[in-house]
Each structure stands twice: as C-alpha cells, then as structure tokens.
Write a structure and sequence with these properties.
By secondary structure, the protein is mostly helical. It contains three helices and no strands.
Length: about 60
C-alpha cells in the first residue's frame, strides 16, 4: 500500500484498514509461533502499512485543529 493510496481514502476506511492490518499482524504472529509462516517479509510490510495509516490519520488530526 502506497502513501498516495492511503491519502485518497477517508478516515472511516482508514480505521477499517488499520483494524484489518492489526488482525493480520496478530495472525502472522501465531503462524510464526506455530512454525507455519511462509512469508516472513509480510511482517515488515504489515508493520509499515500500520505506520503509514497511523501517520496519515495523525496528519489529518493535526490539520483539523
């Protein structure tokens, strides 16, 4: 997910995507713990997506003030 894609969405969509990303990260942790994780690079991608979404939401919050 690119920053431009994130900026093009509204806050409700971003909140839903953030919840989905946290759920995926949770599932990846379980897969790693059980030894069934096939793509370890996905961890970094999901964490990066979470950071992008949170950054964009914070920018919007600050801009609204």
């Amino acid at each position: 997910m690119k920053a431009e894609e994130v900026r093009g969405q509204n806050n409700a969509e971003l909140a839903r995507k953030l919840d989905d990303a946290y759920q995926e990260l949770f599932n990846l942790r379980f897969q790693r713990a059980t030894g069934k994780l096939s793509n370890s690079a996905r961890f970094a991608e999901v964490k990066r997506d979470i950071a992008r979404i949170k950054t964009i939401l914070r920018e919007r919050e600050l801009r609204a003030q």
